[in-house]
Amino acid sequence: MWKTVKNSWKLWLITGLSLIALVSAICYFFSAENLGTKLGSRNGTAMGSINGFIDGKSAGEADGKEAGLSAEDTTVDVKGFFEGAGDMGVLQVLSASVDMSNVHSIGENYAALYHMIGKAVFTVDLNNAEVLTGDDSVFILIPVPEVKVEIDETQTKKIAEYQNVLFNGKTSEGYEAHVNSQKEVMSNLEETVTNYDTLMDMAKKSALSTVKELAENVSTEERKVIVNFKEV
Amino acid sequence: MKLPKKLHNNKNVNVILGFLSGIFLVIAVVLFPLGFNRQVDAANSSYYTSLDVSYNEAKNKAYDHFFEVEEEKNHVTNEVSISVSDIKQEERLEVLYVSDVDYQINNSGGTTIWTMLPGVGTFTVNLKSAEFIVDNEQKYVLARVPRPELSDFSIDRENVKVLLSEDGFFNGNYGKGEDIAREDYDNAYRNLKNKIQANNEYKQQAETSAEFIIKNLITAVNSDVDGLTIDVEFLE
User: Fold this and answer.
1) CA A90 to CA B120: how far, in whole Å?
2) B12 CB near a chain A CB, below 8 Å?
3) B173 vs B153: CA distance, rounded Å
4) Measuring CA to CA, how many Å separate A44 from each of A31, A59, B47, B52, B106?
5) ipTM computed for the complex
6) Interior angle at CA B193, CA B188 and CA B196, nearest 5
7) DSSP annotation string for B78-135
């Protein structure tokens, strides 16, 4: 009898444990997906971050170096040629000598001071002029002067130079940096001179008087010549 | 000995309990592997999804950061200051534009650099020295002008192109590269300017263009004059 009672108690225990196992299995079954997602996401993020960092660093360094050395893309389609200055030509109305100094640097490891001499020339494109002739006057409308700057390369000199002894780059990099600099210097120079109001005002006055004088010189009739700028 | 009734009922309960235990265990044994498979599938899927997302995010961030670092390290800057002098009124008529190309080849210290440098020249006629003889009655204009000359020339810096650039074993340094570039610009400038000035075809073309342009200008100012005759004569 005692054996029966004792066995009965064990069976209750086994049943209880089986029930616990079942409940655990059910809970696990329904939470497995969530658990797997979290686990996979954590590992994926870790691996992705590491690989992404390595690849991004490598690509970023390479592209950044190239961007630092290059001022802008250059598309070239140049061949020897000559062409006329249109039907009516372009009239130079004002010129000025331009003396320039340029502190050119590459990162913190190189710097050079250059001295350059050039010429700024203001021109009026007569191809865009309009001429109206009347009985006793001639009206001429001309575009606003434009400027071009020319550098005399034989007059460009390096006055001073600083170079980091340890981290002083490569010859090819120095060469490319210089070439790209010349492009940027030129475009900025023309923009600066264009926006130099005093000089532009002088160019405008010169344009009006020069065109007027030219028209008066070649006119077969005694007429009043009136020159003005086109509306922009 | 017959078991008491109470004890006999316990035997039925035991059977039921045993049966239930078996069922519970079987279901549990089935559910655990199924659950495990679900976990594995979900982990796989989310692993690759988050791998892509985090990879792209980390890559972009690292790219941006190291791009900036390298760009700054190799950043080229120019600070230009200019002074303007010798301002003068001009009366030059541009009549012809000429373009040509010079190639500079450098092989020094193991470094090889090939560069194409275009140059642009402008032929102009100085109208300050021109003379216009106008005959109102005959409707005739004679323009006596100086011959066109190459008054402007410059390297077309915008279109300079480095065709090949290879460093030697010892790499050299920035300063050497700058010096070579300066020399190339200087040489190309001299070569091209001399070449254009010596080219008689350009001079003839400039005179043809000058004649054409000056006649057009005079015609435009006298557009209401019928039967106008214009001659252009170059001063010696």
Assistant:
1) 15
2) no
3) 32
4) 20, 22, 4, 8, 52
5) 0.72
6) 125
7) EEEEEEEEEEEEEEEEEEEEEEEEEEEEEEETTEEEEEEEEEEEEEEEEGGG-EEEEE
Note whether B69 contacts A: Cβ–Cβ < 8 A: yes
Tokens of A78: 């140049």
Q: B28: burial class by Cβ within 10 Å (0-12, 13-18, 19+)?
A: buried
SS3 B165: strand
A2 DSSP β-pair partners: none
Task: With CB atoms and an 8 Å threshold, state whether A98 touches B177.
Answer: no
User: Per the CB < 8 Å rule, is A68 touching B71?
Assistant: yes
Q: Which of B158, B220, B174, B157 is nearest to A156 (CA)?
A: B157
Q: What is the dihedral of CA A132, A137, A142, A144, to 10 degrees?
A: -150
By the 8 A CB rule, do A194 and B198 touch? no
Spatial CB neighbours of A156, under 8 Å, sequence gap ≥ 6: A114, A115, A116, A117, B182, B185, B186
**Helices B200-221 and A197-218: crossing angle, nearest 10°?**
70
| H or E element at residue B32 | helix B5-73
Give contacts of B 75-104 with A, CB under 8 A: 75-101
φ/ψ bin of A35: left (φ > 0), alpha (ψ from -120 to 50), beta (otherwise): alpha
Full pLDDT tens readout for chain B, 236 residues? 554 555 555 678 878 888 888 999 999 999 999 999 999 999 989 888 888 888 888 888 888 888 888 887 778 888 888 888 899 999 999 999 999 999 999 987 788 999 999 999 999 999 999 999 999 889 999 999 999 999 999 999 999 999 999 887 777 889 999 999 999 999 999 999 999 999 999 999 999 999 999 999 999 999 888 899 999 999 98
* Single-letter code of the amino acid located at A145: P
DSSP string, A102-153: EEEEETTTEEEEEEEEEEEEEEEEGGG-EEEE-SSEEEEEEPPPEEEEEE-G
CA–CA separation, A44 vs A61, rounded Å? 25
Are B59 and A56 in contact (CB < 8 Å)? yes
Distance CA A124, CA A204 (A): 9
Mutation target vs B (from A153, A158, A194, A225; most B CBs, 10 A cutoff)? A153
Q: How far is CA A2 from the centre of its chain?
A: 96
**d(C-alpha A25, C-alpha A196), whole Å:** 84
A115 phi and psi, to 5 degrees?
-115, 130
Spatial contact of A170 and B167, defined as CB atoms under 8 Å apart: yes
